[in-house]
Amino acid sequence: MKRREFITLLGGASVVWPLAARAQQPAMPVIGFLSSRSPHEAAYVVAAFHRGLREGGYSEGQNVGIEYRWAEGQYDRLPELAVDLVRRKVALIASTGGIGAAIAAKQATSTIPIVFTVGDDPITHGLVASFSRPGGNVTGIYNFISAIEAKRFGLLRETVPTTGSIAVLLNPNYLGFDVQLKDLQEAARAVGQQISVFNASSEADIHDAFRAAPTAWHTKLADASEEATASSAAANASKNKIFPITNPSQPVTRPALMCRLGGALL
Questions:
Q1: Domain shared by 117 and 159, yes or no
Q2: How many domains does the chain have?
Q3: Same domain for 152 and 69?
Q4: Which residues contact 223 (CB under 8 A, 6 or more apart)?
Q5: What's the confidence (pLDDT) of residue 41?
Q6: Residues forming a β-bridge with 259
Q7: What is the pLDDT of residues 186-238, one digit of tens each?
Q8: What is the pLDDT of residue 195?
Q9: Based on the domain organization, do 122 and 156 belong to the same domain?
Q10: Which of 25, 56, 133, 153 shows the greatest Cβ crowding within 10 Å of its Cβ?
Q11: Can you name the residues that pair with 199 across neighbouring β-strands?
Q12: CATH code, 232
């Protein structure tokens, strides 16, 4: 072989070999992160998620990619966002911010693994068949938040012993609203507590509710509305010197939300 032909062949190989080597490397897995919240509200959740990945030997951008999808409190967007993640062929979907994200993910795919964190009963909502054998492609963590409503009513009565009816803020747009309301009503009956349920789908709704002037409040907002709505409830509580129990899935960072009972829902 002539020297010029050898150099030409070697030069061609130097182009082909790196391309072939790259083609043989497995593609970086991508996780779909689906949340009903906003990036700001869920900052502490994302931080915890990254810590968990690092403990498992994964680092975003190095050996795993993450596609974030935020509904920002607009629950009707969750199905569309979940379908978009499926189209992108993510390896796994992590659903956070309440039962709605998990439901949307399950409706979007029966093959991609889904891992959820919820405070509402996943069996009641049809996410899993049972705790011991979830079945299908869905599994996750249930914090039993809905199972301790009666205890939170009891804590609120101890905090405000003169209260009669306890006002409850609920977002009717939340995908788990019907079950959530039923759980609260059953918990109230179990402890003989009268409750008044108020719509909390917007700041205007919350202003109207607080003008009704009950003496004690029980909020269900952290996994059922965006940050702005929860902040509005806190601001109204401070203004009216009313102290509600914060939803257990939200860190206690607002002075008005003085009582808390429950786990940390991601």
A1: no
A2: 2
A3: no
A4: 36, 97, 98, 99, 118, 119, 120, 145, 174, 247, 249, 265
A5: 83
A6: 245
A7: 888 888 888 888 887 777 887 777 777 555 555 544 333 445 555 666 666 65
A8: 83
A9: no
A10: 153
A11: 170
A12: 3.40.50.2300
Domain that holds residue 34: 30-142
SS3 248: coil
Name residues whose C-beta falls within 8 Å of residue 105's C-beta, 6 or more positions apart in sequence.
Answer: 34, 82, 85, 93, 95, 114, 116, 138
| Residue tagged 């061609």 (tokens) | 12
Which DSSP category does 175 fall into? Answer: T
93-107 burial code (b ≥16 CB/10 A, e <16)? bbbbbbbbbbbbbbe
Burial of 51 (0-12, 13-18, 19+ CB in 10 A): exposed
Helices (H) and strands (E) in the chain, counts: 8, 8
* Contact between residue 169 and residue 242 where contact means Cβ atoms under 8 Å apart: no
Mean pLDDT by 10 residues, the chain (266 residues): 37 38 67 94 92 95 96 92 97 93 96 92 90 92 75 74 74 80 85 82 78 57 46 61 52 48 48
DSSP 259: B
List Cβ neighbours of 90 (8 Å cut-off, separation of 6 or more).
30, 31, 32, 67, 112
For residue 1, is it within any domain?
A: no
Do residues 81 and 45 lie in contact, with contact meaning Cβ atoms separated by under 8 Å? no
Give yes or no: residues 151 and 193 share one domain.
yes
